[in-house]
Design goal:
The structure is a single chain. This protein is an alpha/beta fold. It is 57% helix and 10% strand. The chain has twelve helices and five strands. A five-stranded parallel sheet has the order 2-3-4-1-5, sandwiched between helices. Helix 2 runs parallel beside helix 3.
Length: 247
């Protein structure tokens, strides 16, 4: 293994709101759960760090020599539906499709799977068979991401793949948003004061919004030659971006 999973995952800022997801990612990146948590299903709203966490798992896995493939839920489903339309829904067809597309893959990441299975009983059953085959016959570690969990699909999957686990990533609280803001400001080489950081944390709700505000602050600094990100500067950006509508 290259750098340890913990070392790489230090890029993911942790507190109580996302510690569970961090520990799950750490276990996967250090290969401590080959038979457990497979598939591992990360669930969160947009902007809570789901993609960032998965990208860190990918980096660690590639550095340790594992082969990783990433596919959207829609593409994953269509890959099989096209073949099934031509050859019928048979076990050997599923296996041949897996071999043709993902033979030798150690980790398969299926992103935003929720849109493909919502309220679709037949699709849920079929995807359960595919994931079971990937995991049990081919030994693939499967990671799923989505904004929500379709309970009927999760229950169906649980019956076949009893090691499946859903790992929520919660919306960052004020303390975590401050840490994220400091990290983004320092990465952008922006000077800042305490009030400026707290202002960013108070008016944003997740990491994606913080990233957008910091990018605007960087541009603002370059255009206006400001010395530091103060509360007044942040308020100007928040107004421009519409965060203060009605205030």
């Amino acid at each position: 293994m290259g750098k340890g999973g913990l070392e790489i995952l230090q890029d993911f800022i942790v507190n109580d709101t996302n510690r569970l997801s961090y520990e799950a990612a750490r276990a996967i990146s250090q290969e401590k759960c080959n038979k457990r948590m497979n598939p591992c299903w990360f669930v969160s709203r947009t902007g809570c760090g789901k993609s960032h966490l998965v990208s860190l798992i990918v980096k660690e896995s590639l550095m340790s020599g594992r082969k990783v493939e990433i596919v959207t839920g829609e593409t994953f489903l269509r890959t099989f539906l096209f073949v099934i339309k031509e050859q019928g829904m048979q076990k050997k067809v599923i296996e041949q499709t897996i071999v043709r597309n993902w033979y030798g893959v150690d980790i398969l990441i299926i992103e935003e799977l929720d849109s493909c299975v919502e309220g679709k009983g037949a699709t849920q059953g079929f995807l359960t068979d595919v994931l079971f085959c990937l995991i049990r016959k081919f030994g693939v570690r499967v990671i799923i991401t989505s904004k929500r969990i379709e309970k009927s699909f999760f229950d169906c999957l649980k019956k076949r793949c009893n090691e499946v686990v859903a790992v929520p990533i919660f919306t960052p609280d004020f303390s975590l948003r401050k840490k994220i803001a400091v990290s983004k400001l320092e990465a952008a080489e922006l000077d800042y004061d305490k009030e400026g950081v707290e202002c960013i944390a108070a008016y944003t709700g997740n990491g994606a919004q913080i990233r957008g505000i910091v990018e605007q602050l960087r541009l603002y600094r370059d255009l206006n030659k400001i010395d530091s990100v103060t509360e007044d500067v942040v308020m100007d950006i928040l107004k421009i971006k519409g965060y203060l509508m009605g205030r």
